[in-house]
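During the reporting period the student researcher (J.K.) took over the structure-prediction task from the postdoctoral fellow and processed the backlog of single-chain submissions. One of the processed entries is reproduced below for the supervisory committee.
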Amino acid sequence: MEIQLITMDMDGTTFQDDHVTIPPRNITALRAAAERGIAVAITTGRAWSQVQEAAEQLGCISWAVTANGASALDLTQGEWLWHTGIPAEQRRAMTTLLLKRGLPFEVYAQGDSYIQQERAEQVIASSPSPEYGEVLRRRCRFVADLNDALEERPTEKIHIFSVPAGQRAALVEELRTLGPVDVDSAFGANMELIAPGVNKAAAVAELCRRLNLGPEQVMAFGDAGNDEALLRWAGWSFAVANASEGAKGAAKYLTASNEAGGVGLAVERYVLGRA
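J.K. obtained the following structure tokens:
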């Protein structure tokens, strides 16, 4: 069957290495696909607030699956489709633990990213590029007390920017004493905490159920551990050349790197029919 939905990860896949710039080849190809009636979606680990500018730059995004699938936004209607949250009591305990440990982290809730004000510069400095850090400074909510600010909001994800290798296993074990949680990673030493069963594959499958599409009609792009399930699920799945070995093994095809506009190259070849 023909491709009816294109969905792509952002960091390390659609963005270049600065985690902000989108190669013109990607923009041109995705817009051309959308003009042919193919739906285009973002599937990212980030909060919506952090990729909204990128979606506007692309100019052809109909849906945004965010926070590794914990939330989804229908841009055609301006409505949230769902929020899957970590229970409030568990989130309070996890946030308290991470603040005590002094780790740089943010909490996603209802499309926004929340950072404890007193830790703002530490978190921004821990981002994977200065450009990404400026996105955080511009788009995040800096609050005096995280748990107070999040009290009435479903927590989609807790994102720890960097956890030293020697601390990861013990930290995961301690976090799981506070309640069930899935742990994922998107780049470097980061750690992503989400509700059990939340992932990009499950989220895109739910979106496709609503759109009456099957996996054989989905073209998906990714580069990291949090993309692997989606790359296995989608009928047309592509790992960029800079992807992890796990992502490459999960994908059915390979394309050029994020720096070289690998998303656009594959769309040109497999959707637009250009050699």
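The committee noted the following: Residues 88-101 form the longest helix (14 residues).
J.K. will present the remaining backlog at the next meeting.
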